[in-house]
Model the fold of this input.
Amino acid sequence: MTCGGTSATKARPDAATVGSLCDIIAGSGCRSLAVIGLVKNAGKTTVVNALMANCPHLFGLTSLGLDGERVDHLTGLAKPRIAPPGGTLVATTRGSLERSRYTMEVLEELPFHTPLGRVLIGRAGTEGHVEVSGPTTLAELAVTIERLQAHGAEQVLVDGAINRIGSASPRVSDGVVVATGGMVGDTLADVLETTAATLDMLLLPAVADETRAQLAPHLAPHLAPQLAQGARALSFDACGVVTPLEFGTVVGEGVTVAREVERLGTRTLFIGGALTQEFVDDLTRVLPPRRELRVVVRDATVLVLPAASVQRCRKRGIALEVLTPLRVLAVTANPFRVPRPYQPRVFFDAVAGAVGDRVPVFDVVNGRASLPGESRRPGMVSP
Done:
């Protein structure tokens, strides 16, 4: 990460600002925290390193997929390395451990096969950097987190990315920190629009208690996507009459579902699996222009579509809601961009303005924080 002309390898997180972020995380009661980036070089690894170095917890660390490589495979730019303090519990693959030439005390080998070998849990040494590559499925990630906690981790950090947003799923993480940065868009306006739209998507509202009660008899345990036998979606009309829509999958069936919605007079549509852009496009194209519909999904991580699509749905009369909302604890802002970084104060104030009072915003390197409810002062610096 480069901030105001300072290279990532030399950037030093501001202890007071990181301390404020640690207080929020500690106060949340989260035992597992996903840190996701909206783009490469958003400062996600810098945030992870800052949390591990400054929060008074015994952390566990893992990833959904691969992270912590020396050079960004997309941009060719040098990246900050993951440097767990001594004693940190780390879950990474054997291949990544060997490639890092990193020494840690191996405590357990998990039976998960990945392209880089099995996942190992170990205790970090006192020096060095490690490439972190964890399991590849949510079920395996859940077990990995459980094992890190069993070995003594008070809080587990899951290093993820926006293209692996599954790490933020409530099935594996209790809270989320979102890293945005200057590389998110071609212009500052693009950065702000994408950041705000992504936050809108991640903060989709929970269904009302009445809707949840209607859905409960039809859901498999733990809110799994399995519904009534043969169904992948449920239709509820104005009187609460439920009709299972029996498809092998709703993927590619947006037109057919839209026609069923009209035929049945559907007011609420529950989708048991992923909600794709193609499905939403078909739904909005076939339904009458002023047709209002509530679409319910398990949680925001099953949305396989651009964040801006959520806003377009809302304008079209389609309200998206979730059974389990995500807990976004904070947004971090990194002014880095190519070929020249944004001025840190200007970038931070712009991001804080776009986020508003929804969640706290931090620049952990340049020492800036914006907390909900506080009066906005340009470039507010943490005490």
